[in-house]
Amino acid sequence: MQDKNQPETILVGEVLKPRGLSGELKVYPLTDDPRRFQALDEVILRRGGTEGVWPVRRVRLDGGKTVGLTLAGIESAEAAGRFRGFEVRIRRDEAAPLPAGRWYYYELEGMDVFDRGVWLGKLERILATGANDVYIVRGEAGEVCVPALKTVVRRVDVPGRRMDVELPPGLI
Q: From 3.10.310.30, 2.30.30.240, 1.10.1420.10, 3.40.50.1010, which CATH number describes the 105-165 domain?
């Protein structure tokens, strides 16, 4: 039985547009390391209720900002154009292991968040701001923006679905 907090697939990119005439997809990577695309044998393209598995034929890195992805069966710019806006996903078991103290967003979303033992609410979503992520927590007192800093986030218990934080004075 699958844990409801563990999705079957993980989002790793978004198709921006076709590139060239041979069916290559220009993909915006949603991963810390775009080189991880080079290790993939297949990807899942999904938008709404449409989903398909595509074998990877070629990966081209474009300086870390985008990835060129050539998939078997997508042989023209016209065919590639049909996938504009699709999510690029991988099976969860293909996710790269993270170092200690790092988590995938899906592991954190939905957790109960406590400030010095007092329940703040559930972690609803995560904003990637560049400098550090911000956890959006919603509870009885409304929405709280928690900076994802080691000085604030004291403990994360993924199996227990709990995060302990120490908010700086004046944040709430």
A: 2.30.30.240
Domain boundaries defined on the chain: 9-94, 105-165
* pLDDT per residue as tens digits for the range 52-68: 999 999 999 988 689 99
The architecture in CATH of the region 9-94 reads Beta Barrel (2.40)
pLDDT tens sequence across 111-124 = 999 999 999 999 99
One-letter amino acid for residue 38 of the chain: Q
